Amino acid sequence: MYSEKVMDHFQNPRNVGEIENASGVGTVGNAKCGDIMRIYLDIDENQIIRDVKFKTFGCGAAVATSSMATELVKGKTVQEAMEVTNKAVMDALDGLPPVKVHCSLLAEEAIHAALWDYAEKNGIKIEGLKPPKADIHDGEEDAAEEY
Amino acid sequence: MIYLDNAATTKTAPEVVEAMLPYFSENYGNPSSIYTLGGTSKKAVNRAREIIAASLGAKTNEIYFTTGGTESDNWAIKSVAEAYKDKGKHIITSKIEHHAVLHTCEWLEKQGYEVTYVDVDENGIVKLDELKKAIRPDTILISVMFANNEIGTIEPIREIGEIARENGILFHTDAVQAYGHIPINVDEYHIDMLSASGHKFNGPKGVGFLYIRTGLKLRNFIHGGQQERGRRGGTENVPSIVGIGAAAERAFANLEERQNKETQLRDYLIAQIQEKIPYCRLNGDAVKRLPNNVNFSFQFIEGESLLILLDMQGICASSGSACTSGSLDPSHVLLAIGLPHEIAHGSLRLSLSEENTKEEIDKTVEALSGIVERLRSMSPLYEDFIKKNR
Question: How far apart are CA B295 and CA B283, in angstroms?
C-alpha cells in the first residue's frame, strides 16, 4: 500500500536521532492516536538549518514523512523551511494512502513546532508561523471527510 | 517465510484441496437434482454435515452451511432478534466480540433493540456477575464468543450457557477461533447457536456453518429454494462444503495431539519473548488461552512499523494498532482489557499452526528482538522514558 519512496524512507530513515542543545525542538501528536514526532533543529546565526534530527513513534508512514521532512528542511533558511508543507512532503514521497495523510500533517506540524521553539528562544518572529496545536488530531474528522 | 498469522487464516490442507477437486470437475451435479450425478453431490454435502455434527455432539439437521463466520453471526443474532421480539428486545453480548457480532448488535440498536455490552477482566474473561446483572425479563439472547480472535482468551462458555438456560434465554457463541482447535460440545455447554468458519482450521475460505439447536423458531434467512431446510436458500457451494467437512475431519482426528504440540510451542514463544525483550506485556489469559495464540504489547513502539519490518524478514503476523485497523483507535479488545492507548498501539499477535517449528520460533524471537530495539531507538517515548529513569 506504500510507495517505494515511503518504504525506502521507512526502512532507511534519514536523520534519526537527537541534537544536544538544539536551537529548537518540537514534539507533536499524541500516543493515544498512535503517532508522536519530535524534531530537533540546529540553526546558525544566518537562520540556516545546519542540522536536523527526528524521533518518531508511529506507523511506517509516520516514520517516512518524518524522514522526508527532515531531508526537505536541511540546509534551508527558516523562512524556506516554512514552505515545506504536508503536501510537499507527500509529493516527495510519491503520495500516501488516504488514511495516512494525517502523518504528513504531523510532519509539517513537527517542523513548525521546532521552528516556534527556536523563534521563542531567540525572540524572533518567523512570518506565517503559528503556535503549535495542543493536539494535532483536533478537527481531523472533518478533514477526513474530504478524502 | 514464517507464517504466524493462523488466526487470520490458515493454509488449506492438501488433503482438503484434494477432496474438493472432483466437485469442481466430474461431480458437478446440483444436489437438488434427482438423477445420480445430483445424488453424488447431495451425498457429499450430507457427509460433510455429518462430520461437523458429530464433532459438536449435534444432530445433522442442526448444521446449516453459510459463507463463513460473519454470515453465521449475522444470521444467528438478527434472526433471534426478529423471531423473539414479542418476548423482548434486549440482547447481551461482550465488549470484545468480533465486529461481525458487534456491528450486527449496533445495527439492531438502530432498529429499536437494546444491547448490553458486558465488560471483561484484565485477561479478557467476561465478567459473569455483570452478565447475570444485565439479564432482564425482556432479554432474548446472550452472544459471547468462545475464544477471542486477538488475545486468544477462552471464555467461560459452560457457565454462560448455564446462566442462559436457567433464565430461559437463548445462547449464541461465535466459535470461529475455537472450532477445530479445542473440543466443543453443544449440549455440555448449553449452546443454542454456534458460528464457525472453514478457513480458520485449514479449510477453504468462503464457507462456514451455523449450528441451530432443534426447536428454535427462526425465520428463514435467505428466501429461495429448499436448500438448508429452506432456511438458507441457494444452490449449495458443494466443493467448499466438501472442503469444510474434510477440514473438520482432519482437525478432529488429531485434536488433542495438535493442541498439546501447539500449546508447548506457544508457551516456548511466550517465555522466549519475555526473556529476550524488555518492557513487554502478554495480553490475554496465560492459561485459559487458545493453544495457538500469542499476543504481546511492546512499550514505546507502534504495531504497524513492527509488522512491516517483520514482513521484510519474511515473518507474517498481525497487530491491533490503529494503523492496521484503518482508524485512529487501536483494537477495541485491547482497550477493553484496560490497556492504555499507547500500549495497545504496540501490540503484536503471533498465531501458530502445528506446522511451525521451534527453529522458526527462535528465528522469530531473534528478528523481533532486533526490530523492537531498532524501533525503540527512534521512539521519542523511549527517549523520554530513558531520560526519566537515568
Answer: 5
pLDDT per residue as tens digits for the range B133-155: 999 999 999 999 999 999 999 99
Burial of A29 (0-12, 13-18, 19+ CB in 10 A): buried
Query: What is the distance, to the nearest Å, from the Cα of residue B107 to the centroid of all Cα atoms in its chain?
Result: 21
What is the spatial distance between Cα B374 and Cα B308, in angstroms, rounded to a whole number?
13
Is B323 known to be catalytic? yes
Cα→Cα distances B157→B13, B67, B118, B142, B164, Å: 29, 24, 14, 11, 10
The answer to whether the Cβ–Cβ distance between B378 and A56 falls below 8 Å is: yes
Kindly report the CA angle at B80 between B74 and B85, in degrees rounded to 5? 130
Q: From the CB of residue A45, how many other CB atoms can be counted at a distance below 10 Å?
A: 6
Dihedral of CA B237/B238/B244/B245: which sign?
A: positive
CB of B89 within 8 A of CB of B112? yes
The one-letter amino acid code at A93 reads L
- Residue A8 CB partners (closer than 8 Å, separation 6+): A64
- ipTM of the prediction greater than 0.90, yes or no: no
pTM for this predicted structure: 0.93
**How is residue A139 annotated by DSSP?**
T
Name the residue of chain A whose CA is nearest to B321's CA: A34
Return residues 111-130 of A near B (CB < 8 Å). Answer: none
Q: Where are the domains of chain A?
A: 4-129
B379 and A56 within 8 Å at the Cβ level: the answer is yes
Query: Could you tell me the fold of the domain covering A4-129?
Result: Sufe protein. Chain: A (3.90.1010)
Tell me which of B288 and A31 has the higher pLDDT: B288
Q: Following CA atoms B347, B353, B357, B362 in sequence, which dihedral angle do they give, to the nearest 10 degrees?
A: 0
3-state SS class at A117: helix
Q: To the nearest whole number, what is the mean pLDDT of chain B? A: 96
**What is the count of residue pairs from A and B with beta carbons less than 8 Å apart?**
73
Q: What residues 365-384 of chain B have any CB closer than 8 A to a CB of chain A?
A: 377-383
Q: Which of B 108-167 lie inside 8 A of A, CB atoms?
A: none
CB-neighbour burial class of residue B354 (10 A; exposed 0-12, middle 13-18, buried 19+): middle
Test mutation, B302, B313, B371, chain A, max A CBs within 10 A: B302
| DSSP for residue B179 | B
